[in-house]
């Protein structure tokens, strides 16, 4: 198995990983459940009861996609088979570099 330093040398450009997320959306007051409209959508409202799950971190988008196919056959995920999101992340890249503010 390659160590992290060895792995970084095998890739060209910045080293990337792919984070896989799933959202189980809570029903609205009228009983309707909103789902992602397309593969580029990603939103959740955890205060309203949406359940966001990190399913794993993968070395390629293809590996994350294979995990989606496996998860779609599992309880819970079968109810929301299109509510997955793959997020590309660059290793050692800072986020929130200017801090943040919250609403009072």
Tell me what you see in this structure.
By secondary structure, the chain is α+β, with helices and mostly antiparallel strands. It has a domain at 21-90. Helices cover 17% and strands 23% of the residues. The chain has two helices and three strands. A three-stranded antiparallel β-sheet has the order 2-1-3, covered by helices on one side. The longest helix is centred in the middle third of the chain and has 11 residues, at 61-71. It is flat, with a radius of gyration of 17 Å. The model has no long low-confidence stretch (mean pLDDT 82).
Note the gap between the termini. Answer: 48 Å
- Show unreliable segments: none
How many H/I helices? 2
Mean pLDDT: 82
Multimerization status: single chain
What is the strand arrangement across the widest sheet?
Answer: 2-1-3
Biggest β-sheet, characterized? Answer: 3 strands, antiparallel
What is the number of E strands? 3
Which class do the helix and strand fractions yield?
A: alpha+beta
Q: Briefly, what is this?
A:
Helix content is 17%, strand content 23%. It has 104 residues and is of the alpha+beta class. The chain has a domain at 21-90.
């Amino acid at each position: 198995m390659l160590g992290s330093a060895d792995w970084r040398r095998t890739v060209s450009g910045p080293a990337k990983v792919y984070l896989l997320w799933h959202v189980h959306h809570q029903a609205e007051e009228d009983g309707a459940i909103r789902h992602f409209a397309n593969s580029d959508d990603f939103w959740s409202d955890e205060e309203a009861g949406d359940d966001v799950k990190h399913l794993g971190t993968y070395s390629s988008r293809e590996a994350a996609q294979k995990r989606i196919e496996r998860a779609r056959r599992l309880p819970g995920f079968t109810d929301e088979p299109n509510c997955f999101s793959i997020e590309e992340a660059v290793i050692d890249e800072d986020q929130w570099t200017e801090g943040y503010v919250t609403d009072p």
